[in-house]
Amino acid sequence: MNTHPHRGPAPDDFGALFRPATIAVAGVSARTAGQGNKFIQRLRAAGYRGKIYPIHPTESQLEGLPAYPSLAATPEPVDYAFIAIPAEAVPPLLASANGRVRYAQVMSSGFGEGGRGGGLRDALLQAARQGGMRLLGPNCMGIYSPAGRVTFTDGQLGEAGTVGVLSQSGGLSIDIVRSGEYRGLRFSGVVSLGNCLDVDPGDLLQHYLDDPGTRVIGAYVEEIRDGRRFFELLRHAQARKPVVLLKGGRTRQGQRAAASHTGSLASNDQVWRALAAQTGSILADTMDDFIDALVALEQESAHAAAFDGRVVLFGNGGGASVLAADALGRLDLDVPELQAGTIAALEQLGIPPGAGIENPLDVPANILQRDHGALARRILDTVVAAERPGVVVVHLNLPVIMGYRQGELMDELVRTAIGLKADLPAGVRLYLVLRSTGQADLEARRQAYANLAMQSGIPVFLGLPAVARALAALRRYSRFRVSRAAPQAMAGAAAASLS
Q1: Are 207 and 273 members of one domain?
Q2: Which of 44, 11, 12 has the alpha carbon at shortest distance from 25?
Q3: What is the distance between the alpha carbons of residues 85 and 28, in angstroms, rounded to a whole number?
Q4: Other CB atoms within 10 Å distance of the CB of residue 408
Q5: Among 48, 132, 343, 452, which is disulfide-ready with 43 (CB 3.0 to 4.6 Å)?
Q6: What SS3 state is found at 310?
Q7: One-character DSSP codes across 89-155
Q8: How far lies 161's CA from each of 77, 204, 250, 459, in Å?
């Protein structure tokens, strides 16, 4: 991995990228709906409150806004320039900016992808240096920033949150935003980096590590030119924030596809497994695992109690509980037997025959409906107080439960989970699995219940295998934190004894 020709700005400088006060847009047309037109329309729909300056060599007005012939001609300096014009026209435009643009994002492609356009790639980087700006891309979607009201997606802009993501794929950036928000993630920012001629994954990683508004970091990467810097940033951070990595090109076939996509060659799987092991990062294998890990880790903080791997399973559906216990066991997670005192306390609750009061706790829906779902809360309170597990997983089978009292039982059980979350002792986490068979009416209800739970800070998963993999990620992260904390504690004790 070669040293990158640019070094990133100080982390605070990225504020102009995520919360730009002025945006220039090149690629706006008076006759057709170009990418620049769409970008301005998205800004307006998102409620962007800053100044927008269309750039066009001949037009005086575009999208109802005064247009300007160059980046140097705008009434005030530009924080963020969106560039979507033919590749050969981009270098002259950037070179003439005269130091008045802080960040230029080049959506255009044709700068070295698949081994073509290498000359234009060099000209683009030289033009960015001559024009005095930092360069995002080329071949990228740009910025998704709920706080800054800037977006590369259609539809409603999500709420600002604490998940920061960088991605070397524009298409996957859209998938991450849409899938992530559907799953309850709220983003501090998502950045599509493209070919990374200038601003690279290390720059954004450093920003997210230092940004107090970002709690958990996700990264889809295909190739990192300055791999040493990326590794050192993660190593120095000592997993103070969870970092989830989705690495494209970890096989020979994936490397060939990545070379065609970004114009560079990716490193092998062993390198990334070693990096994850040495830095406490989570290496995901699929997009679903990536999102699930972010959902699980979003609630973690530097001061959260480490997850010790002990899980209590509670739900309806005996076979599902057995398979869930198997899935957790294969991932080195423990579904421990309950203590004799805990079982005795459960027996005092008057639970009818047909319910399992071991771990997993299997309670059929016809029993759960007693006392309008209050029995579920009594069971969970008893087990949590006695066992203090690291995680309680509540899994509910919607097709079955929705058949009781026109869905009222499901309402009651979700409210039970929300109430339990509010009263959990420190160090005990609650995850909710809402299982469905995919029919449209059930899925709509499932998502409504998921939204209620997520608003209360409960991570929600679509299935038991998914929650098992997410808990395995949480366990790996916690183990790394514990392994690093022990030597530091010993060193602190030694220093205290010498003082």
Answers
A1: yes
A2: 44
A3: 9
A4: 14
A5: 48
A6: strand
A7: GHHHHHHTTTT-EEEEEE----SSGGG--HHHHHHHHHHHHHHT-EEE-SS--EEEBTTTTB-SSSS
A8: 29, 17, 30, 14
**In this structure, are 153 and 294 located in the same domain?**
yes
Residue 198, number of CB atoms within 10 A of its CB: 24
Higher pLDDT, 205 or 495: 205
Whole-model pTM over 0.85: yes
152/201 same-domain check: yes
What is the residue-averaged pLDDT of the chain? Answer: 90
**Torsion angle of C-alpha atoms 82, 84, 85, 91, degrees rounded to 10:** 50
Residue 394 lies in a domain: yes
CA angle 254, 257, 262 (to 5 degrees): 120
Same domain, 160 and 67: no
CA distance 381 to 374: 11
How many other C-beta atoms can be found within 10 angstroms of the C-beta atom of residue 484?
Answer: 14
Q: What is the pLDDT of residue 6?
A: 45
- Is 198 in a helix, a strand, or coil? coil
- Cα torsion for 291, 274, 189, 193, to the nearest 10°? -110
Q: Do residues 288 and 316 both lie within one domain?
A: no
